[in-house]
Write a structure and sequence with these properties.
alpha+beta; NADH Oxidase; 2 domains; four-stranded antiparallel sheet; 6 helices; 4 strands
Length: 216
Amino acid sequence: MGTLTEITSLERETAFKNEALKVIYQRRAIRKYKDISIDKNSIEKIIDAGRMAPSAMNRQPWKFYILTNKEEIKVFSKEISKAVLKGVAHGIAKSGLKGILKLGKEILHFPHATDFFKLEDPVFHGAPVVIFITSPKDNEWAVLDVGMCSQNIMLAAKSMGIDSCPVGVGKFVEHTKIYSMLNIPNTEQVQLSIILGHGDENPVPNERNKNNVIFL
């Protein structure tokens, strides 16, 4: 039996003969983007793919709040970063500055936690499109529905040559002083944010664990 790397390579070669599987295997979480905008028509097509996701009782609980203005995205990024760090500091105040920076580094995926304060766009990584996905607060299944919707969005984007990354800390936008600018009703909550753009990096895929299937 071959090694995990050999098996994965063979599977990828086979998968690339199928367009849907090819997109699944090629999608990466991209955190560096070129300064290239995405037209509204392309964004609409990507959102339409998200709308095609299944949902509990076909409630389709998702709503999409989209930022495309470069300067506005930077402002939201800075404010969210402040909210994230404030939350981290509050949660681990007893561990001191070192602990705060360590956790902040892990949450935000930065190679050096102190660089966080220097980055122009520490949350959305220079992406030209930011999508905040919300759902009703009283829908207990919505988080699963939004997850499936989000995957559709990212796979559709990749099929169109557009990269993406799910940004979980986008939820912290609810704790910023500019949250009202999104015009999100009080009956909704932000479940996730997704960034879209033309990637300026090509990260190597991580190997997947093959020992997590149990046939009954």
